[in-house]
UniProtKB/TrEMBL annotation:
Protein name: tetraacyldisaccharide 4'-kinase
HAMAP family per record: LpxK
Keyword DNA-binding: no
Broad enzyme group: transferase
InterPro entries: LpxK
Alphabetic keyword roster: ATP-binding, Kinase, Lipid A biosynthesis, Lipid biosynthesis, Lipid metabolism, Nucleotide-binding, Transferase
Species in which this protein is naturally found: Rhynchospora pubera
Highest taxon listed in the record's lineage: Eukaryota
Amino acid sequence: MERVKKAIIRMAATPDRRLPLGQRCLVAPVLSAASSLYGLCVCLRRALYSWQLLRPLRLPLPVISVGNLTWGGTGKTPMVLFLSRFFLHSHSCTPLILTRGYAGADEASMLKRHLSATSAVVAVGKNRARLAASLLRRFPTPKLRVVILDDGMQHWSLARQVEIIMINALMPWGNGHLLPRGPLREPLHALQRAHLIVIHHANLVSETELKTIESTILRICSKTIPVFFSELVPSHFFEINSPNEKLPLSTVHALVVLCVSAIGCPDSFVKALIQIGALHIHRLDFTDHHALQTEDIKLITDKIRSLALVHDNKAAIVVTEKDYDRDPGVLQKLGEFKILVLCSSFRIMTFKSKGDEGFKAKLKELVCKSFANNTSL
């Protein structure tokens, strides 16, 4: 199944004309038919909400949705953390974070770990509308002041006042097809629902590429749609047995590293290690949310042993925070080797006269405009 997923991901990132003949003639038509059916279902469901045959739940609090148009790797979870800290520290507001807890619930675990020392409430459940209603009965409204809906763009059963759409600069639209033929969850015109658009991993592509992505957005949406740019800035490492002990980024300068990840955009992880300056870099990529199995542990073990043998034991495994939070226990099975977790902080970049302060001001304006009784935000 992992091989099938990887093959579909490769196809989704490849323009039709560059596909091998066999895939283009045999596999692509089947996936295209499935994409057409999927697109019809999406269109019908949107229509049911437009015709008010289905009605979203409206909460007595401002709801900020953080979502994406494509599959993972767009920076949704780092953005949710960024927003949570903004409301906690700048406005003393307790956020209620609603997350689905997909697959290994790695995002939920990561959010809980980072926000464990705060008053933020992280709630996990597939039906986030029902979950929110239940929690608001338990927690008094004065305590909870804002709701942040993680991966919420397609979760139409919950009304929102602010729609933030994240876009991966390294692969903004893939091959332009809907799932499963491509990476798109909805057609590109769904960008028109956005109040704020953030192009993530903007530091990893050229200025020309950023301008191309932005021009596509502005062609689809109103030219007044605010577009911002973000990056993940590496801050430090920690070893899996000492998560509270920060190690400097220079730790890997004399090491050969094996990047092991099961995230939506592994290229961004590898590029970060290149920028940090690891001595040599090798990689093992698994599909997003993949839980390591016995055969995967053996594969990783064989690879790191061969690297250690060639490079005089100056080798280490490096994983992302998301991979660590998915299952810290399974990484213990690799305990004979040095395992480092790369920690990064989310930042709105200053680009084209727009930056962090402009983003926060626009966010506050949108929330206060939609909920006049929450102007204290």
